[in-house]
Amino acid sequence: MKKQLISGLALILLFASCQNSSGDKAATNTAQEVSEHKGENYALETDKSTIKWTGYHKGGLNPRYGILKSEGTLSVENNQLTGGTFVIDINSIVTDTKSVDPATSGGKKASDLDTHLKSADFFDTEKYPSAKFEITSVKPFDGELDKSKIDGATNTVSGNLTIKDKTVNVTFPAKVTLSGDEITFYSKFSIERQNWGLTYGTEGSPEDWMIAKDIDLEINATAKKTN
């Protein structure tokens, strides 16, 4: 019995440590002053811009993933990104049906997870229908000093991410490409959901413990010049 208990604990610890995001881990800080929108403005094309999210059960098991829609603006001066704002429509959240199998989830479907995520258990969209990301600084990415899982990262971007009533500054590598009157912005990074009060029940409860603390966010945005 003692041997079985030790083996069980070892398995739990292994699961708790084996979630491996394919993106970068965002650094966090307190909220910072938002960058001024300098230069020319580019409006996000909502039909070409998505934020893919991935959440996990403890240990990276049974990942759930889907997309969110966003609108906003990016600013460019002297061919360099200077600022920007993403307004994320939380009510647009859609869970990919391939990530939820009713046969192994007690009959629950992807649409059931959408409803649950919008409820007061998580995002509480009735009270907080949107989230916001506001760029606070943009720096060139230094491949000799910085590391990233993004091939061809060009910049290190910091911004205030507001979810519900909490704002945390996050920093991550991004690939920003300017071509004519179009700019693309790509990044993939993970955040700790508890920093924004995204807990199921109370933090540390059995229900919340079964959900991995990290959420992956993959931003793939395209914007067109407006002036």
Write a concise synopsis of the structure shown.
Helix content is 13%, strand content 49%. The chain is built from 3 helices and 11 strands, in the order αββββββαββββαβ. The protein is globular, with a radius of gyration of 19 Å.
Topology readout:
Elements lengths: L1 H16 L6 E2 L1 E3 L10 E5 L5 E8 L3 E17 L2 E16 L14 H9 L11 E11 L14 E9 L2 E14 L2 E11 L13 H4 L1 E15 L2
Parallel strand pairs: 1-10
Antiparallel strand pairs: 2-9, 3-5, 3-11, 4-5, 4-11, 5-6, 6-7, 7-8, 8-9, 9-10, 10-11
Mean pLDDT: 89
Number of helices: 3
Count the E strands: 11
Report how far the terminal alpha carbons are from each other. 72 Å
Largest sheet: 11 strands, mixed
- The percent range for strand residues is over 45%
**Order of H and E elements:** HEEEEEEHEEEEHE
- Overall body shape: globular
CATH architecture: Beta Barrel
Spatial extent as radius of gyration: 19 Å
The CATH class is Mainly Beta
Question: Low-confidence segments, ≥5 residues, pLDDT <50?
Answer: 1-19
CATH topology: Lipocalin
